[in-house]
């Protein structure tokens, strides 16, 4: 009895790779992210506020109100500097 031959067909698919951003695009993204981050002093303030709420030194709604109030004041002060 002869052995039958099997023919296999291979199909390939082309998957396009995304473009890798250039140096300028990466630099502008880093600059934008740094601009959105809080300053060191603000980060320490919010960290302390979070720690105080986590340790039940103050209640979390009070901490949230203080944090939101501080953010609003900071944003208004920053917008006032830009318009002057």
Radius of gyration equals 28 Å
Please write the string of helix (H) and strand (E) elements: HHH
Percent helix among the residues? 55-70%
Tell me the β content.
Answer: under 5%
Unreliable spans are none
Give the averaged pLDDT, no decimals: 88
Task: Characterize the main sheet.
Answer: none
Q: Give me the number of helical elements.
A: 3
Global shape: elongated
Oligomer: single chain
Derived from helix and strand composition plus strand pairing, the structural class reads mainly alpha
The count of β-strands is 0
Relevant terms:
mainly alpha, 63% helix
Summarize the structure.
The protein is an all-alpha fold.
Can you describe this structure?
The structure is a single chain. By secondary structure, this protein is mostly helical. The protein is built from 3 helices and no strands. The longest helix is centred in the last third of the chain and has 24 residues. The model has no long low-confidence stretch (mean pLDDT 88).
What is this structure's SSE topology?
Elements (H helix, E strand, L loop, with lengths): L22 H14 L3 H15 L5 H24 L1
């Amino acid at each position: 009895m002869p052995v039958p031959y099997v023919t296999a067909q291979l199909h390939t698919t082309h998957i396009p790779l995304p473009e890798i951003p250039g140096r300028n695009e990466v630099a502008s993204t880093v600059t934008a992210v740094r601009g959105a981050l809080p300053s060191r002093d603000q980060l320490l303030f919010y960290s302390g506020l979070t720690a105080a709420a986590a340790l039940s030194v103050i209640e979390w709604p009070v901490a949230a109100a203080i944090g939101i109030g501080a953010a609003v004041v900071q944003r208004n002060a920053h917008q006032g500097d830009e318009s002057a």
